[in-house]
Amino acid sequence: MLTLQAAGADVLFHAALTKFSAQVLAKANGLGWKPLQLIPASTASTLVTMDSVGGENAAGILTTQFLKDPNDPG
Residue 12 and residue 41: Cα distance in Å, rounded? Predict the structure, then answer.
């Protein structure tokens, strides 16, 4: 990730399982790196990925998630 940030990458596609995608989100936020992040539906679980890093840190991330989260009261 440091190499990508140093190279000026402004898009990051997560091709990872949920646990590792959450780690990537946390690391990018820790670095202060704010690329456009794309997460596939298979790793876009709100409960596991986004909440583990904090909802505000996941703002602006795009996903192909097309199902409602059954744990979301909204």
Answer: 15
Question: What are 64's two structure tokens?
Answer: 């192909």
The residue extents of the domains of the chain are 8-61
Asked if residue 30 lies in contact with residue 24, where contact means CB atoms within 8 angstroms, the answer is: no
From the list 7, 3, 48, the residue with the least C-alpha distance to 26 is 48
Q: Closest by alpha carbon to 20, among 55, 49, 57?
A: 49
Alpha carbon distances (Å) from 1 to 7, 32, 58, 59, 61: 10, 12, 17, 19, 17
Specify the pTM.
Answer: 0.73
- What are 55-71's pLDDT values in tens digits? 777 778 888 777 776 77
